[in-house]
Structure formats: structure tokens, C-alpha cells
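// run 5 | inverse folding | seed 20
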């Protein structure tokens, strides 16, 4: 874990700090610490620690951002969500000033986020309205989607629909895999997309936007299909890779010919040479694999809420968005592609619009989904 820098808040008698940009008339200036909670995969943690935070601190010398907690794959999301809500109700500090996690939307829905405004975060004006509405009080700051990766030496034409993919899996036993949904979003996306094939558009929209346990009864048809794939997926006995990295390892060593992968992780693997160049990716329809924005949120009661919003505003700047697109993560920007560097603009097709990516379920619903998958699907 990244060590905290020495943080001191200097009080100057008779002097009031009116703005974040204030510099004392002496040789000293206040140093503001922003405590960041990150829930995700190791590539997300690396982006924050080695790229975004150092760049922000260089541009803002009187700010210190510390990743005070990192939760791999969001395994403790439910506990952290409860902790933050309990702290807010008791008007206590939850220990975080900025949260990057899948439960940001739920915090917003329940009224536990500081609602962003253009006066504090001017750069949110660059983010599509549809994404801001989806965020429920959070702030989208990057995006990615899950894609179907395939070995082009073996698969000349990849499946175009979910039905086609399910047929291919059964026609090619052991050559397809997806990871346990609790271990990473690439496996979760496949499992949810199979489930959604048997749900109405209205049902899916509800599960994306609000907690709804009665609707979860409709998951059974999809879980039955997922269970029926046990003899045909990698291993052929109902066991699944533990996470995104384990899936990519099977891709890299040729153990499978097809798998669901995160767009950013796949591109990073190609760039690093860990994934062979003959591996390609495609999207399917009916339904498409899920994706969408990752979100930041400022919990109510944050002791550095104003500084946290300044940090988020920088994350939405072209400088930071270029790092997200061109750095370790290879993510999608949330600001217009035309605001990126020419090199990064060239990575996207004309008219690229991340607001069209199909989102996953709301955090509480996705937690229930992962738990039900573990009970219903793997081999016993």
C-alpha cells in the first residue's frame, strides 16, 4: 500500500483560506489530503498509484492523494457500502473522501453522496448527460466493455449473437471459458448477458437502476442455461477460472480458443506481448456483453469534500483522460474524443459514444447475482 506523505494543515492566525488555490503569504501552504477507496482489479490500482495520482500531485503540489484502501475484485463491496452508510447516519467519518467502486450508484440512490455541480466540478459539463443520469450522484470518469476474445487462427468468423455463441460453446467442448462472476467483471458480464437473454428490457432496466429482489426470481431460466454449459466450458466439469487474470492466462497459453475479456485488459495484454497478436476481439448482440462507465463518488461527511471534488475535476481533464486512454489501462474516455491528443483520438472510431455501452446491474442486485451463480451453476 502506498505510504502516506507527511500531511500538515497549517493554520495561520487571523488568516482565512477562502479558496483551494490559496497560497499563504509565508513560504508555507496548506496541504490537503484526499483519501481514495478503490475497488477493482490490479490494473486499476496500478493506474491510480503509478499514473493518475503522481500526475495530479505534480500539477497540484499542495495536494496528497492516498489509496487508503484497495479491494481486489470488490469482494468486500457489500461490507464497505454498509460501513459508509452507517458512518453517514451517525455523522462520522467513514475514512474515505473519494470512492471508486461499483456501489457508487447505490450510495447516490440512497442519498449518501455529495451531489456534483459544475461550480465545484466544472469538467462534468464535458460528460454526456446520459452517463451523469446513470451515475445517480456519482461521476463517471472512464469506461470499458467486455468483449469476446477469439483465436483467429482457429476461429475465422466469431459468433455474432448470444445464440451463436452458445451453439459454438457446445460444438467446441472445453475451448471456451469465463471466470467466476465474483472474481471479475469479464465473467460476470457473460453470466449476466446469458441471464438477460431471458429477461424483458423493462426488467433489465429496473435491475440496473434500483434494488429489486422479486425480479431476481426471473434469473432461473438463465441460470439453468449456464449450468447446462458445465460439460462444455474449459475443464468440462463445472469449474471456472478464479478471475479476469486467470482467464487471460488461459487465453495467452492457448488453453482455450474463446473467452470473455475486458477491453482494456485485452489491449494492455496485446501491447505488452503477453497475448499473441493473432487473438482478436468482437462484440455480440442479443444481448451484448455488458460494459459502461466506472464512477467516482464523494461520500457525504467527507472531511476533505471540497479538495476531493477538485481532484475529481482534474481526473475529468484532457490531461488525465489522455492518461486513462493511453496509459496502463487503455480505457475509454468520458469526455469527447476530440479533446484527446491526436495519438489517442486515433484509437477510436468516428462517433465513438460510450453512453451506448450496456451497463451491469446495480451493486446490490449484482451481489445477489454473484451469490446465486455460486449456488446454482458450478459443478457439485
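// decoded
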Amino acid at each position: 500500500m502506498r505510504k502516506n506523505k507527511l500531511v500538515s494543515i497549517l493554520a495561520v492566525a487571523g488568516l482565512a483560506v477562502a479558496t483551494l488555490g490559496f497560497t499563504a503569504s509565508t513560504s508555507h501552504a496548506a496541504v490537503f489530503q484526499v483519501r481514495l477507496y478503490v475497488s477493482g482489479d490490479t490494473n486499476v490500482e496500478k493506474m491510480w498509484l503509478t499514473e493518475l495520482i503522481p500526475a495530479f500531485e505534480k500539477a497540484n503540489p499542495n495536494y496528497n492523494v492516498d489509496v487508503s484502501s484497495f479491494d481486489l475484485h470488490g469482494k468486500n463491496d457489500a461490507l464497505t457500502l454498509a460501513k459508509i452508510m452507517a458512518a453517514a447516519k451517525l455523522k462520522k467519518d467513514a475514512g474515505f473522501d473519494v470512492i471508486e467502486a461499483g456501489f457508487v450508484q447505490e450510495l447516490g440512490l440512497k442519498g449518501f453522496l455529495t451531489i456534483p455541480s459544475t461550480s465545484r466540478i466544472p469538467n462534468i459539463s464535458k460528460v454526456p448527460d446520459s452517463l451523469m443520469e446513470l451515475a445517480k450522484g456519482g461521476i463517471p470518469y472512464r469506461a470499458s466493455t467486455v468483449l469476446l476474445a477469439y483465436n483467429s487462427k482457429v476461429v475465422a468468423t466469431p459468433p455474432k449473437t448470444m445464440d451463436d455463441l452458445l451453439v459454438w460453446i457446445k460444438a467446441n467442448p472445453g475451448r471456451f471459458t469465463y471466470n467466476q462472476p465474483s472474481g471479475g467483471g469479464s465473467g460476470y458480464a457473460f453470466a449476466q448477458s446469458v441471464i438477460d437473454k431471458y429477461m424483458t428490457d423493462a426488467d433489465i432496466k429496473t435491475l440496473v437502476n434500483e434494488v429489486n429482489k422479486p425480479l431476481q426470481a426471473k434469473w432461473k431460466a438463465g441460470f439453468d442455461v449456464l449450468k447446462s454449459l458445465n460439460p462444455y466450458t474449459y475443464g468440462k466439469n463445472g469449474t471456472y477460472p478464479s478471475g479476469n487474470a486467470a482467464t487471460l492466462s488461459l487465453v495467452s497459453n492457448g488453453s482455450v480458443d474463446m473467452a470473455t475479456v475486458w477491453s482494456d485488459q485485452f489491449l494492455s495484454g496485446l501491447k505488452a506481448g503477453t497475448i499473441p497478436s493473432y487473438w482478436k476481439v468482437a462484440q455480440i448482440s442479443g444481448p451484448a456483453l455488458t460494459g459502461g462507465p466506472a464512477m467516482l463518488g464523494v461520500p457525504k461527511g467527507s472531511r476533505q469534500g471540497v479538495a476531493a471534488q477538485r481532484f475529481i475535476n482534474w481526473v475529468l481533464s484532457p490531461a488525465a483522460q489522455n492518461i486513462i486512454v493511453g496509459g496502463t489501462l487503455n480505457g475509454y474516455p468520458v469526455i469527447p474524443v476530440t479533446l484527446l491528443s491526436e495519438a489517442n483520438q486515433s484509437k477510436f472510431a468516428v462517433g465513438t459514444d460510450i453512453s451506448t455501452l450496456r451497463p451491469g446491474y446495480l451493486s446490490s442486485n449484482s451481489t445477489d447475482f454473484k451469490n446465486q451463480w455460486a449456488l446454482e451453476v458450478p459443478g457439485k
